Amino acid sequence: MNRIKNYISGSVASNSNNYSPVYDPTKGEKSGEVVISNTDDFNNTISSSKKAFKTWSQITPLKRSRIIAKYKDILEKNIEILAKIVSSEHGKTLDDAKGSVIRGIEVVEFASGIPHLLKGEFSQNVGTDIDSWSIRQPLGITAGITPFNFPAMVPMWMYPISIACGNSFILKPSEKNPSCSLKLAELFSDAGLPDGVFNVLNGDKDVVNMILSSDEISSVSFVGSTPVAKYIYETSAKYGKRVQALGGAKNHLVVMPDANLDQAVDGIMGAAYGSAGERCMAVSVAVAVGDIGNELVDRIYNKAQTLKVAPWTDESSEMGPVISQEHKDKIIDYISIGEKEGAKLLLDGRECSIQGYEKGHFVGPTLFDHVKKEMKIYKEEIFGPVLSVVRAKNYEEALSLVNEHAFGNGTSIYTSDGEVSRNFTTNCKIGMVGVNVPIPVPMAFHSFGGWKQSLFGDHSMHGIEGVRFFTKLKTITSRWPKSIKSGPEFKMPTN
Fold first, then answer.
1. Is it the case that residue 485 has pLDDT exceeding 70?
2. Euclidean distance between CA atoms 165 and 118, whole angstroms
3. 405: closest CA among 288, 287, 278?
4. CA-based, 20 to 30 A from 453: which of 7, 54, 127, 414?
5. What is the CATH code for 2-247+454-477?
């Protein structure tokens, strides 16, 4: 039985004898155990991180960037290995897992430009013979608490930028699929990262609370559900921490009557059912505007029936299982609620079963039509392969649906009208917006984050927002008296 421990000071270790099962969602069987860290593990991690920060923060940004650039090269050589680890513990298709690893590596690549990103501002003669400038300095020990759905990509939204800025970083991954985090840490050590700069601490809610209440930890980054994000935000603030907490979503994709329907349907299919809907940017609501509704629903219905649900080891698989039996039961309950609320259930994924994998946590593609905004399946995040179609009379009603929803993570519009597109991107109250793009996840050099109940804190993740989050701004004002020079130097100055 595979026993997954922590990664502290460059070594796999733990003092705890308490372990939690890790399941293979494809088979529905136990595949390993992950340690539930105790107070000794936590204290050892803090001590390691604190010691490492003292030296790492003094290393020049250029030298840090060279280690990170080497890390990027090593990650690229290990994409296949990392993707298989993700698929085996999460269940998503191998191509989807590879894509998520690549998107994470893009953040590492962005972080390698840290010497430029840390440049401050300078003003000469703010007063007579007085100059003023700003610099950004690291926070200290930083921490990230990450979800099960992207065990490679989401951690890489956080720790590469934090470490590039000169911090040490503690990662607390999901206990449902922890193996990828340890592999990411080991590969960073292979790139030359000093021991203790990047530690992985496994555990449950007790470990999370240790992180939130620790006086030694300066910031907390989180991605997960809205109730937990709000708890992370409030508790972190109570203990004086900087916090970015990304919560849930109910992403709407608006289809206008003039949309390219083939593109819209393909976009909806991939965004609603890819990764079994377990994405914070998944499309869970399709808004059919005007008279496009019937044809849109018919096309989605026909295509969804051909979607291949299979284990990730099947190269032709388009959708795998959900993460756990508990989560499968939750999704099934939502489908039943939708029926009772009066939504028209066109495709029912509750009885999905794969030969040879009958114990697997599979839910088939599910499609509801004529969903109303008062319904629970419309208001709440299901986080599964369940698509709700809402009918809107016109563009104004569609925009109101988007803006009035409690979540504000992502949205998209499919249209051929530039004026409508501009109005939508300007006036929707959403953090990430797509035009004829189903999943508008920003590239690494922009930032990821929603509005409303989808983000708690002032900063989005990665991009320049990440650099600002993981550094403190310091402004210096200086005037120098005349001084005696020590003499000329004739060698080329080096870093």
1. no
2. 8
3. 287
4. 414
5. 3.40.605.10
